[in-house]
Amino acid sequence: MGSENTVEEQGTDTPGARSLRLGVAGPVGTGKSSVIAALCRALSEEMRIGVVTNDIYTDEDARFLKAEGVLPEERIRAVETGACPHTAIRDDVTMNLLAVEDLEQDFAPLDIVLVESGGDNLTATFSPSLVDAQLFVLDVAGGGDVARKGGPGIGRADLVVVNKVDLADHVGVDVPQMVDDATRAREGAPVLALSGKRWGTVEQLCEWVRGLHRRHLSGTHVPTDPGPMAPHFHADEEGGYLHSHV
Ligand SMILES: Nc1nc2c(ncn2[C@@H]2O[C@H](COP(=O)(O)OP(=O)(O)OP(=O)(O)O)[C@@H](O)[C@H]2O)c(=O)[nH]1
């Protein structure tokens, strides 16, 4: 699957000359790291993969992926954002972009770099200046109604993943209904029901990634911006104004 030439040989104007950069966003605990681990396990024989994780204060997610042994450790880089997760994937992507470019340079040529956002709310999305495409991960344990709540990630990410469907019976969620609701909120754009415990669903996700990578290589994938998060501001510890996202 990997392209044969180095980035230098291809030139930066060649479609797909650098890796496909794929963002993985979604609320806290929906399974973003697990989705990345599953993709690395399933695709690392056929694709050259790098991973950048984001945590606010730690390198927890990178340590999880290293412990899982899904990739050589040096291909997993942690960015400590030090601020709310959406800041580093949307407002000022510098730290993440540097980490992605370092990986691409150190292991050239890579086929795909997966960038995991820190867990955030339903309105957090990646800037198209950081990633070429993005997944938005929900899980059934967050409640079946979440898919109807919309927002830029659910509405316009390249793919919405409804994760942990193996838990649906335990939490009383009707998976086909949740997928239908998400599909309606996305006006027909793709939604995938996934469980790390069900190989067939992981293979469906891999097939989606392979298709995206093919379109990236041929230059037919056009990155789209799901749009900014809802305007809001952050207060300091005394409740005063700190900064805003408008
Ligand atoms: N049953 C089940 N559990 C899952 C699945 N995917 C992830 N989990 C569990 O869900 C929990 C959270 O998974 P993570 O992958 O750490 O979630 P995350 O979105 O990366 O979490 P943050 O980075 O903290 O936002 C862990 O206990 C996982 O083992 C799944 O498909 N089925």
TrEMBL record:
Question: Quick one: which residues bind GTP?
Answer: 26-33
Q: Which source organism does the UniProt entry give?
A: Nocardiopsis kunsanensis
Where is this protein localized, as stated in its record? Cytoplasm
Q: Where is the signal peptide?
A: none
**Which GO terms of the molecular function aspect are on file?**
GTP binding; GTPase activity; nickel cation binding
Q: What gene does this protein come from? A: ureG
Q: Where is the composition biased (Acidic residues)?
A: 1-11
Q: Supply the Pfam families for this chain.
A: cobW (PF02492)
Q: Which residues cross the membrane?
A: none
The alphabetized UniProt keywords are: Chaperone, Cytoplasm, GTP-binding, Nickel insertion, Nucleotide-binding
Please, one GO biological process term?
urea catabolic process
| Coiled-coil stretches noted in the UniProt entry, renumbered to this chain | none
Show the segment(s) annotated as Disordered: 1-20, 221-246
Q: Domain CobW/HypB/UreG nucleotide-binding, which positions?
A: 23-192
Annotated family? Belongs to the SIMIBI class G3E GTPase family. UreG subfamily.
Gene3D superfamilies given in the database record: P-loop containing nucleotide triphosphate hydrolases
Fill in the subunit field for this protein. Answer: Homodimer. UreD, UreF and UreG form a complex that acts as a GTP-hydrolysis-dependent molecular chaperone, activating the urease apoprotein by helping to assemble the nickel containing metallocenter of UreC. The UreE protein probably delivers the nickel.
Function text:
Facilitates the functional incorporation of the urease nickel metallocenter. This process requires GTP hydrolysis, probably effectuated by UreG.
Lineage start: Bacteria, Bacillati, Actinomycetota, Actinomycetes, Streptosporangiales
Can the keyword Repeat be found in this entry's annotation?
Answer: no
GO-annotated cellular components? cytoplasm
Q: What is this protein called?
A: Urease accessory protein UreG
